[in-house]
Every structure is written in C-alpha cells, then in structure tokens.
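A quick word before the example. In earlier lectures we treated sequence and structure as two separate objects. From today on, think of them as two lines of the same record. Here is FAD-dependent oxidoreductase written that way.
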Amino acid sequence: MSKRVLISGASVAGPALAYGLHRQGYDVTVVERAPSLRGSGYAVDFRGDAFTVLDGMGILGEVRGHDTHMRGTDLVDAEGNKTGELPSEAFAGDLEIPKKDLTRILHRITAEQVRYLFGDSITELEQTDDEVRVRFEHHEPAGFDLVVGADGVYSTVRRLAFGPHSRFVGHLGMSGAGFTTTNFLGLDHRVVLQSTPGRALLLFSANESDRMTVSLSFATPSAEVDLLDRAQQQELVHAAFAEAGWAVPRLLKEMTDAPDFLFSSACQVEMDRWSQGRIVLVGDAGYCAAPTSGMGTSQALIGADTLATCLAESNGDHTTAFTAYEQRLRPYVTANQKHGREAAAMFGA
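And the structure line, produced from the sequence above:
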C-alpha cells in the first residue's frame, strides 16, 4: 500500500512537491482553500538551482516560453520624469514569468495523478504513532501517513501543529497593495519605479500589453494590517499616498474596484524546526524569506525538491528524511533571509 500524503496549498511548493512524491509512488492529495487555481499575483522569477528543479520536472522549456522579456526599469521623480535606469536583472532575476502561468503549469503536470480538493481547508490535526488524522471544513475526516504545510506565511498547518503565527512571523516594516489596471501609461515590457523613503510605486506591463500591474508599498508598524478587511487596507494605502501626484490619484481610484486586489506585508518566517512528527513545512510556511529577497519562488521549488529527494533517499523514513531536509536546506534559507532583511532595511532608508 502506497503512503498517503496530504499537502496543504496549491501555489508553487505544494504542487512541486506533489509531483516529486507521486513519482516515488506516494498517494498524494492537495487541499487548497481557494475555490480554483489562483489567477492573480505578481510575476515570479527564478535563480540558481531552481532551473535544475524545473528541468528535472520537464517543464523548463515551457516555463521559458512565458518569459516576460522585461527590458529594464525606469526611475522617475514625483512628476513622473525619468531620472535614471536599472537593468532588467534588478527585478526579474535570470528568468521572470507571470505567477499564474507557473501555477497553471504545475497543476497541469500533476492534475491526473494527484487528487486536488479546492475550496476546502484543514481544521484539525491529530497525530498518532501510525498516522495523522485530519479534519476538514467540508470533506470527511481522513488519515494520512504524512501532512505537509505548503500554505504560505499564514500557514494553517503550522498554526495547528506548531503554534500561533505570532511565534514565527516577523514583520520587516513594509506592506503593499497590488492589482492590475489598464495600461494607460503605454508601458512596453518596462518597469517604472518611483521611490521615496518609506514609500514606493512600481508599475510594469509585460505579456498583456493592454494591462499594467501596480504595486503600492509603504511603511507599516505591524503585519496585523494583513488581517484587516479590504476597505480598511485600502484606507491605509490612500493615507500613505495621499500627497503623491502624477499617476497616483488615478491609480488609487482604480484600486477601489480592482477585482484582483491583493494586500500583503513583507514578512519572514523563522523556526527552530520545520517538522513535528509526521508533519513538515515547505516553502513560505516554514521559512519565508520575504518578497524583498527575490527568492520566494526559487526557494519554494528548491525546498520541495529537497524534501522529495530526502524522502526518496531515506526509503520513506520520514524522521530521517526530515532531519536531512533541514540540514541541507537551512544554510540556503539563512542566506536568503539575510538578503531579504537587508533589502527591506534599504526601503526605509
């Protein structure tokens, strides 16, 4: 009988791990709170060993086909006048694609072999010597040999198995709102950055020439703003950018009704251990390095691949595998988190 694994989260780390575990003969289920694949999110980029992971999954060529082909970043002043320029690598890494394309690809290569439970979430975890009993919001309770939290900074699995978010989530002093709107500035594979101490506006248009992605970042004292409702979050954005001119007033107006509005804070997740018995964390759930690190997607892919490899090498002995997983990955995570903190500190300079 194949081992049963439940993975919480269907963004990047979850499906990537599901792919690796299915190839080893595991019976994999992925539960995702969203009712379907998420079609929003910023572009994501890849660096270093992430390319080896994508190649091993047989999707590197397809991923490259969605390259945003960004040509650089224009620095502008308060009136929108260009004052400087940065190379494309400053934000796009070695390869950049829209996040929705990556999640679609990862789902496609696993959908026929992995059971996906959309529109549901874990409510209770109970470990025994032989399994983890799981209760869901909607599906019937079930037992699994392993449970994996790949469900982001505010991981349900981590909260249930390790403790409250406040113990592990550290705020780096900034939050941001994101959405898309019409490309009224006529951007063509370019990024525009307007930055002052404690506040930044970033705009870009890539593969959808008629659309422009907007990011409005500003200093915040606590990540608790993530828990506010949309209206309250938008009030904070309006307050932070109230005195800004140029395109900002129009962007603030269009933000109000944007169907893909997102709000999140720059946070890091730091833990002494990423596993507890038969439960383990991967990606942002266990070791988020913050968006300022530029390594979130690469770290998720490499983390998932490392965990799958360690389980294979241990012949399914999860205790041995989880120990090896942490020993191999932690130096890489530590370096990424250091870079994330340094970049966030520059934001407030």
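Notice the following. The chain is about 35% helix and 30% strand. We will return to this example when we discuss secondary structure assignment.
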